[in-house]
Every structure is written in C-alpha cells, then in structure tokens.
C-alpha cells in the first residue's frame, strides 16, 4: 500500500500583509534581496508575520549502494559506516559546522551494510544492508521504498515533537552520486553525460567507467515518471528516506533545506510524488558535482550559496541556516519607516 502524503499548498492569505511589512522596513524597496524572499516564504509556511526558527536540526541519512561493487566511487564502501561512527562521535564536517551554528544533528542508519548494534546517538531505521546493484536489478523492492518513505516521515514527526521548526537534510553513502545521476536521468531525461560527475573524486578514466556502468543501469528500464518507481529501481535507502522526510516536513508545515546533488535527487523524487512539496523547500547551495547545475535549473531553484562544496552530509544545508535566521530577524526586529520616523521614497 502506498503511503499518502497530505500536503496543503502554503496559504497566501497573509501575502499582502507580509509584503507590506517587508516593504515598510527602513531600507530601500527590495534592498534585502533574497532575504526578503526567504522572509515571505517562512511567513507563508508558518502562517505568521513573525516566523521563528527554533531548534533547527540537520538529519543525516546514511545508506549503502550495491552499485558500489562496480567501482563507481573513488572510495571503498566501508567509508560509509566509518563516517557514520564519525558523525556519532561528533567529528565530521557536518558536526563541526552544525555546532558552530547552533544546529542539532541527528544521524540515521537508513540501510548501511555494516551492523552497528545498539549505538547511542544513532537512529536505527535500517531497511537492509545496502541496496542491490541497480546496474543489474532494481535497487530495492516497492515495499522497501514505501517503508523508507514512511520512516523518513517518522523522523520529521519526532523532530517536530521536540520543538524543531526548521529541518535540513543531508546524506552519506558511498556510490550514491551514481544513484542520484540515474534518478536525474530517468525522471528528467537529463543525458548521462551531463548528469554524471566525479563524486568523491574519480579521475578521468574513473569517470568514463562510471558513465558506462550508469548507461548499463539506465538501459534496464524504459522511461520512468513515477517517483516511487524511480526510487525503487535506482534509489538508495537514504535517498528514499530523505524523500519521505521532505514530504513529511511539507505535510507538517515545516520548512526544510535541501543540501547538494544527492539530497537534490531525493527532492526530485519527492516532487514527482507530490508537487506541493515545493512551497516548503529552500535550496541551500550549488554543489560542485557535475549535474547539480542542470538539476537546479530544471527545478527552477535558485540556491542561496555557491561555495564549491561537494561533500554532502548536509554541510551546505547547515550553512544556509543563518540566512534563514537572518530573514526572521529582519522581519521581526527591524523598524519600519513609520516607527523609526524615517522618510520613505520621494
Ligand atoms: O552533496 C553533494 O553534492 C555531493 C557531491 C559529491 C559527493 N558527495 C558525497 O560523496 C559520497 C558519494 O560520492 P561517490 O563518489 O561515492 O558516489 C556521498 O557520501 C556524498 O555525501 C556529495
Ligand atoms: C571521507 C568521506 C566523507 C564524506 N562525507 C560525505 N561523503 C563522504 C565521502 C568520503 C570519502
């Protein structure tokens, strides 16, 4: 049975008041640029002229990929579980960035090949010991895909129950740029030559080999338009769980930040499942991974940052949190022309 996501488009009922409040702040009209768009978006999502960011949380979903056996990554598969341990011990990039910015980190085992046993600080949502090799067979079953979507939603509900009003999503999974490229290729017809990049750092020969493997994987299926089918054929457990979390966040009326290329592929699938997810999404950054530019263009998404990042883990998403805080701060705290006695436009 397919899980239904009941997402209401955000209400535009407050738009006139929000725009008026933004325009009457003591600044030339439009001078806070993209922060003004963020303020409007957050005001709409929270249905208030005073949106707030409380207990922001980045959820890092980890999973392994059968296609790693084809030699499509510059790093071995065991790096996935080793990095999960690093996240749990607080030593990864996302931990350091999140600490410096006051963002909570949750780490989720969506389907890492390694068995961690009970491990404090790790959420066990394991769907299997990695996906199957999607170059030769579907990555997962339709049932696993459904369970992944549902478990992603559960993580959002848990965050919300703990007072979180802003979510950021990130991932860890050796070979998951292959899954992401295949999702982009299959769902949006982007040629594999454009959709495939170097991931963790393949050299030229590695990239040629990766493209050949992905072409073989892509040839297994005809055109796919259904988000669930695409996830089942080519996704990862962490990618499907992120898609469920994004849909769950939109359903719960919570804004969420999309990280880089792989998180973007989860968003692509989520948007195919329920287009209304768009209103709640903020795109953090333009990843250096080839294919992300094409993905963002297709989504008509303007990311906030362009820092040359290609790490994943939710690092770019965490870096966007201060900008969302700033949008709330100017809307809530800035004086208006009237309250400050400043002359408006001549
Ligand atoms: O977020 C991105 O845009 C991004 C771009 C390239 C690589 N990554 C990270 O690198 C891993 C996947 O790379 P690969 O080469 O193993 O497919 C995975 O753990 C991702 O988090 C992430
Ligand atoms: C070391 C390392 C850290 C990562 N974090 C996200 N993806 C990664 C891939 C590698 C290889």
From TrEMBL:
Organism: Ideonella alba
Pathway(s) it belongs to: Nucleoside biosynthesis; alpha-ribazole biosynthesis; alpha-ribazole from 5,6-dimethylbenzimidazole: step 1/2
CDD domains linked to this entry: DMB-PRT_CobT
Keywords linked to the UniProt accession: Cobalamin biosynthesis, Glycosyltransferase, Transferase
Name listed for the protein in its UniProt record: Nicotinate-nucleotide--dimethylbenzimidazole phosphoribosyltransferase
Active-site residues (renumbered): 313
Gene this protein is translated from: cobT
Family label: Belongs to the CobT family.
Function description: Catalyzes the synthesis of alpha-ribazole-5'-phosphate from nicotinate mononucleotide (NAMN) and 5,6-dimethylbenzimidazole (DMB).
Pfam families, alphabetized: DBI_PRT
């Amino acid at each position: 049975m397919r899980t239904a996501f009941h997402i209401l488009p955000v209400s535009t009922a407050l738009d006139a008041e929000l725009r008026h409040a933004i325009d009457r702040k003591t600044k030339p009209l439009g001078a806070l640029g993209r922060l003004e768009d963020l303020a409007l978006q957050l005001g709409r999502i929270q249905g208030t002229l005073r949106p707030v960011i409380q207990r922001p949380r980045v959820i890092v979903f980890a999973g392994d990929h059968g296609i790693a056996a084809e030699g499509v990554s510059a790093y071995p598969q065991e790096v996935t579980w080793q990095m999960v341990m690093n996240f749990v011990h607080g030593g990864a990039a996302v931990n350091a960035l999140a600490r410096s910015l006051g963002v909570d980190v949750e780490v989720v085992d969506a389907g890492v090949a390694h068995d961690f046993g009970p491990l404090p600080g790790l959420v066990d949502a394991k769907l299997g010991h990695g996906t199957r090799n999607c170059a030769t067979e579907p990555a997962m079953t339709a049932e696993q895909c459904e369970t992944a979507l549902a478990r992603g939603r559960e993580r959002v509900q848990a965050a919300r129950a703990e007072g979180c009003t802003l979510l950021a999503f990130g991932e860890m999974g050796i070979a998951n740029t292959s899954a992401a490229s295949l999702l982009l290729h299959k769902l949006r017809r982007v040629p594999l030559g454009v959709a495939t990049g170097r991931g963790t750092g393949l050299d030229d020969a590695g990239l040629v080999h990766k493209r050949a493997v992905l072409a073989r994987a892509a040839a297994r299926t005809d055109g796919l338009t259904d988000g669930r089918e695409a996830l089942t054929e080519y996704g990862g457990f962490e990618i499907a769980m992120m898609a469920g979390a994004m849909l769950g966040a939109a359903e719960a009326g919570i804004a969420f930040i999309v990280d880089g290329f792989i998180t973007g592929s989860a968003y692509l699938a989520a948007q195919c499942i329920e287009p209304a997810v768009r209103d709640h999404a903020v795109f953090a950054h333009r990843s250096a991974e080839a294919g992300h530019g094409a993905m963002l263009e297709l989504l008509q998404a303007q990311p906030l940052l362009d820092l040359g990042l290609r790490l994943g883990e939710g690092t770019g998403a965490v870096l966007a949190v201060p900008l969302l805080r700033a949008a709330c701060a100017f809307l809530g705290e800035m004086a208006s022309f009237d309250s400050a006695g400043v002359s408006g436009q001549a």
